[in-house]
Design a protein that fits this description.
Oligomer: single chain
Distance between the termini: 75 Å
CATH class of one domain: Mainly Beta
Strand content: 15-25%
CATH architecture of one domain: Roll
Strand order of the largest sheet: 1-4-5
Structural class: alpha+beta
Radius of gyration: 36 Å
CATH superfamily of one domain: Head domain of nucleotide exchange factor GrpE
Helix content: 40-55%
Shape: elongated
CATH topology of one domain: Nucleotide Exchange Factor Grpe, Chain A, domain 2
Largest sheet: 3 strands, antiparallel
Number of helices: 3
Length: 176
């Protein structure tokens, strides 16, 4: 952007007409100076407007790229899990214990990938207070536990960056 110089005339520093022989010449000079100032102001305004538009466009492009590639890191963590699943399916003659061991290792890989992706498991313990922000009550059951506490977890829930991705499905104790 251009900066104004102190020696340039401004609207406040307009030239006073002199009381000489040529008052019209002085008015013409003043009009010329004001037109020059107006043109410089228009130019500065257009340059500033163009700069703002360029910044807005670059920001929009950056946001679009961030959305497009946000999952890339998470997907990279899931690829080894996919490889393990494919490898498990290729082995046909193994016993059940080896298959179970492979599934447990794959689950461990998947849990690690979810953790790296900032996905946290919601798995409340029995007796924990029911929280409607984290849990979804599937049913209420009679229990010796205090009312509105979790009796059992039917399905784990998950958080992503402190936001509920899926609530834990739970059974809750009834009031006595």
């Amino acid at each position: 952007m251009t900066q104004e110089k102190n020696d340039e005339p401004s609207v406040e520093q307009h030239v006073e007409p002199s009381h000489s022989d040529a008052p019209e010449s002085s008015h013409e000079q003043q009009v010329t100076q004001l037109n020059q100032l107006l043109n410089e102001s228009k130019d500065a305004f257009l340059r500033a407007k163009a700069e703002v538009e360029n910044v807005r466009r670059r920001a929009a492009d950056d946001i679009a790229k961030a959305h497009k590639f946000a999952i890339e890191s998470f997907a990279e963590h899931l690829l080894p899990v996919m490889d393990s699943m494919h490898a498990a399916l290729q082995h046909h003659n193994e016993d059940l214990n080896k298959l179970k061991e492979g599934v447990e290792l794959t689950l461990k890989q998947l849990s690690g990938a979810l953790e790296k992706g900032k996905i946290v498991e919601i798995n409340p313990e029995a007796g924990a207070k029911f929280d409607p922000h984290l849990h979804q009550a599937i049913s209420t059951v009679e229990s010796e536990q205090e009312a509105n506490t979790i009796v059992s977890v039917l399905q784990k829930g998950y958080l992503i960056a402190d936001r509920v991705l899926r609530p834990a499905l739970v059974m809750v104790s009834q009031a006595k």
